[in-house]
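Hi U.,

Before I forget, here's the chain from the pilot set. I'm dumping it here mostly so it's searchable later in email.
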Amino acid sequence: MAIEVKRKQKEALNVFLRRFSERVKRSGIINDFKKSKFYLKPKSKNLKRKSALERKKKSEKMKFLKKVGKAK
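Structure:
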């Protein structure tokens, strides 16, 4: 997706840059780039299940430590 902006005759450079940046913002190119920059692969079922079990074990351990008085 290319954006073409031509400088008008006798147009100041700062005005031209402002017009260009507004056109880029409206097109959404920057947002698409930022979204794709940090793409995370979706987790598989087994990985989701494994991480859920680890969280559960960790929370049970913390509950026990709080009950015993070794953790706040």
